[in-house]
Amino acid sequence: MVINLVLLTAGFLALIKGADVLVDSAVLISRRSGLSELLIGLTIVAFGTSLPELAVSISAALKDSGIAVGNVLGSNVANIALVLGIGSLILPVKVSRASIIYEIPFVLFSSVVVSMLLLLRGSALTRFDGAILLCLFVIFLAYAGKMAIGDYSKNLFNTTHDSGISSHGLAKPFLLTIMGIAGVVIGSELVVRSGTSVALFFGVSETLVGLTVVAIGTSLPELVTTIAAGLKKSGALAFGNLLGSNIMNLLLVLGLASIVSPIVADRSVLFEIIFMIGSVLLLIPLCLKDRQFGRVSGFLLLFVYIAFVFTTIVSG
Q1: For tag attachment on the chain, is the N or C end more exposed, with fewer CB atoms within 10 Å?
Q2: Phi and psi of 94, rounded to 5°?
């Protein structure tokens, strides 16, 4: 038991450090290309911070573990209620008009699609379901590509000699990116192995572990990124990261995991689905007034997460 707890801690540390290095290097590469902070958050940073969920879920699917579904649902609730809640308490997180019109509705749409598939399949996802999710992910990439073209065209129009946009010095960031990926993959393997052992030792379901301990651990990169972006007054980067991470968790992570091997949760995830969709719906009224999340919003989101954890423990 002690060994498993040590491995679990080591896995979380590797996940956090690996994702941190990956995000820093990816942001450096992206900013040197002149892309907007929102697009950086939605794509490069979101992919980097979603790698723990991707690695954990695929590894769990290969082991026929119930952590895969619970990890994604729990991580998505944690990203919004816990991460955005804490970030909003530190500094207001500003929301762009594009996020309100396009990104939040797409997160909601993705959440509803995944929820319907899970409910229809009895908390499971087949390879056919995975193909559907990956097709939706391609649509998201097309939207991101359209944003990138718009950013590039805008930068060409507005470029000056001191714009700071450069294609030089990319070797080191690329090397750090590879190192970050390695840390994330190794850490995820440790989390799955030790997390499953801890779940069995305490007699709780693997899905519940995925919804709480593993989900929070794999959401720590989003939390660190959001806090750092908030302190640097990069609200678009922070919010884009959270939305992009949730989209990738639902479409890419669950899509690839179920393609690798059909995944089945070992308990009903109805309450988790309700909280996941409800937390996304809550974003709309909270950000419409001032187009930002302040301390009041932060306290409300944290209350939602506490209620989520309490509900999952009671139901699990």
Answers
A1: N
A2: -80, 150
**Three-class secondary structure of residue 10 per DSSP:** helix
- Give the predicted TM-score (pTM) of the model: 0.81
Contact 111, 76 (CB under 8 A): yes
- Homologous superfamily of the 2-157+169-315 domain (CATH): NCX, central ion-binding region (1.20.1420.30)
139-191 pLDDT, tens digit per residue, is: 999 988 887 777 656 665 555 444 445 555 667 877 887 888 788 778 777 87
Nearest C-alpha neighbor of 189 from the set 77, 79, 51, 47: 51
